[in-house]
Amino acid sequence: MSNKPKLLDQVRNSLRQRNYSYSTEKTYVSWIKRFVLYHDKRHPKEMGEKEIGDFLTHLAVDRKVSPKTQNQALNAILYLYKHILKVDLDEIKALRPRESKHLPTVLPQREVHKILPLLRGETRLMAKLLYGSGLRVSECLNLRIKDIDFEMSQIVVRDSKGNKDRLTMLPQSLQEILKEHIVGVKALYEQDQKNKVEGVYLPHALARKYPKAGKEWIWQWVFPSKGLSKDPRTRVVRRHHRHGSSLRKQIKVAAKKAGVFKQVTPHTFRHSFATHLLENNYDIRTVQELLGHKSVKTTMIYTHVLNKGPSAVLSPLDTAPEKEKQAS
Hints:
Layout: H1 7-17, H2 22-38, H3 49-62, H4 67-84, H5 109-115, H6 121-133, H7 137-141, E1 148-149, E2 154-160, E3 164-169, H8 175-194, H9 206-209, E4 229-230, E5 237-238, H10 245-257, H11 266-279, H12 284-291, H13 296-299, H14 322-327
Antiparallel strand pairs: 1-2, 2-3, 4-5
């Protein structure tokens, strides 16, 4: 009897070796499973470009999923063939659906400052970090004590999109509030130490190399969860970081209370951070670095939502001679 792991376990092991996040692991495994089930549990080795194309067509036509979701499914399947089955399917990339490009929702500063006071406690602090530092939600949730540098007024964002580290600003107005928050986090940490709670999750191979590091203060989450829970990978009961769902819900409620009738999400604060920096005439490449964008083209989208773009183009109606304006 073969001791070789099952196909989905091979996928999980491969993703973990390459340091993919747990959410990506769940998503990829789910799409591969759906692909196999759609083709009546045929082994992927027996299938190829035609079957993948049929599955993508099913998603688009029958399930009516968005191009973004179709691309997500294709990425999972391509990962399976490339890294597990060692089959190159470059030609299938021609089937990749073209995603629609939507302008991001951006709040003017007055609306940002109407919403933030309506949030409470830790949620308000997190929202202020999203807006004041340009963090993604996942980056905020994954902050550890060692990533906050009060002396240099900066935050080190670890393993962000593309598995890259970057630096961003720590707003001066948040420093004292954040220090007070960390005092409370330390009290919780010390209580966990007394109760012999397992250390926090460590990235990559650090847990094997430094088995006691997870119990060290510097590795603790800046925004830990209120309760303990079982690690979905190791089954160890420990304290994880806070989940993002409550943050999303509370921001949505606060926006409604503030009379801001737009699709406001936590990510809206990051969009607003970028746009307001450009409005204040900061160089677009500086904003690109703070956001962690690989290409300046990605950052350029924010120039389209400015009241005045980089060319300061005005409508011809607004530049009409004063006498003509008065006459109209």
